[in-house]
């Protein structure tokens, strides 16, 4: 019984192997490139695995994504689609995302980038903003992360609206669903937060069409996946003033290439995919528990729907 582990960096792979090994002494836990008998591998624990690697394990019972998204697993078209994919989620991941969203929504709401620009010129420029109760914030995606973040924003006092595929009830949040509810959700929104999974229906969702439906001068926060955003449309919307600022944690190519215009843009804040990354000490406990439950019952609550893509 082998669990094979793969992350893009070898030291991170070793770290996760060590943490999982301490919790699962009955299992052989090994990096992908050190697997000696591929037929013995029954679980693959992965973050952005190289294409074709998992297809070498003929007896996989499940693939474990080190994180909430499964797009990085489905990017590998050689992975057999019948193999279940287990997401790694929990209070730690949700807490970190709540912190990130609250930090950046408040920063846009209180126009901190403008205050910092004034400070850089030793300029005393009092910018008075309305209270949060007069600011409409929209959260796209009301799953584990989106619902928790939206609820927190509502507790702070924001007029909070949320949008999901199916109807949802989130305390303090006015919710909309499906393509029918999208226009109403966007109308009057001044800060738009993306916490959607990356699927064929959500790719490129943050484009000129959406920007034009937000209130003029709105801000956007993308903490989901880079391909949700049409980069060129954002640059044009910033130039025209339709969008005033963007905080981006995720990008089409990561690490963001050094020549990318986002790096030096005065109205874009770049963070290096740190909104909510699960670490090995916490994540390995969740993964060990999920694998044990999956071994006993053949399922876990955090199973992704591979057909749906999340
Ligand atoms: P989740 O629990 O699966 O929730 C996804 C939400 O998106 C659900 O509310 C779902 O609607 C909605 N949705 C899916 N497709 C939609 C569509 N076509 N139209 C409207 N709504 C749609 O996911 P999660 O755990 O909250 O995570 C969300 C994403 O955040 C992940 O997939 C990942 O890409 C990203 N993430 C980023 C970081 C980071 O550090 N930057 C960290 C963790 C996760 P239903 O409720 O109707 O199904
Ligand atoms: C991080 O991006 C995740 O999907 O958990």
TrEMBL record:
The keyword NAD applies. Transmembrane segments: none annotated. SUPFAM superfamilies: Formate/glycerate dehydrogenase catalytic domain-like, NAD(P)-binding Rossmann-fold domains. Residues 104-275 form the D-isomer specific 2-hydroxyacid dehydrogenase NAD-binding domain. InterPro entries: D-isomer_DH_CS1, D-isomer_DH_NAD-bd, NAD(P)-bd_dom_sf. The keyword Isomerase does not apply. Gene3D superfamilies: NAD(P)-binding Rossmann-like Domain. This is Glyoxylate/hydroxypyruvate reductase A. It comes from Gemmobacter megaterium.
């Amino acid at each position: 019984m082998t669990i094979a582990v793969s992350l893009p960096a070898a030291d991170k792979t070793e770290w996760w192997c060590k943490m999982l090994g301490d919790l699962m002494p009955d299992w052989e836990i090994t990096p992908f490139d050190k697997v000696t008998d591929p037929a013995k591998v029954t679980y693959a624990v992965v973050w952005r695995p190289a294409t074709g690697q998992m297809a070498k394990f003929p007896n996989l019972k499940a693939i474990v994504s080190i994180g909430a998204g499964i797009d990085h697993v489905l990017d590998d078209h050689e992975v057999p689609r019948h193999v279940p994919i287990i997401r790694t989620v929990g209070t730690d991941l949700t807490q970190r995302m709540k912190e990130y969203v609250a930090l950046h929504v408040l920063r846009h709401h209180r126009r901190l980038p403008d205050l910092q620009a004034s400070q850089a010129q030793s300029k005393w420029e009092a910018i008075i903003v309305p209270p949060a109760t007069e600011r409409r914030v929209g959260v796209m995606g009301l799953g584990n992360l989106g619902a928790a973040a939206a609820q927190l924003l509502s507790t702070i006092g924001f007029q909070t609206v949320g949008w999901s595929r199916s109807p949802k009830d989130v305390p303090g949040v006015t919710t909309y669903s499906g393509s029918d509810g999208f226009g109403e959700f966007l109308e009057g929104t001044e800060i738009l937060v993306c916490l959607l999974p990356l699927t064929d229906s959500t790719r490129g969702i943050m484009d000129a069409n959406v920007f034009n439906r937000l209130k003029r001068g709105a801000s956007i926060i993308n903490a989901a996946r880079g391909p949700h955003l049409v980069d060129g449309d954002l640059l044009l919307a910033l130039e025209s003033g339709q969008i005033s600022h963007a905080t981006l944690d995720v990008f089409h190519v990561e690490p963001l290439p050094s020549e990318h215009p986002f790096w030096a843009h005065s109205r874009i804040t770049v963070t290096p995919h740190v909104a909510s990354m699960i670490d090995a000490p916490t994540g390995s406990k969740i993964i060990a528990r999920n694998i044990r439950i999956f071994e006993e019952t053949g399922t876990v609550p955090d199973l992704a729907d591979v057909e749906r893509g999340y």
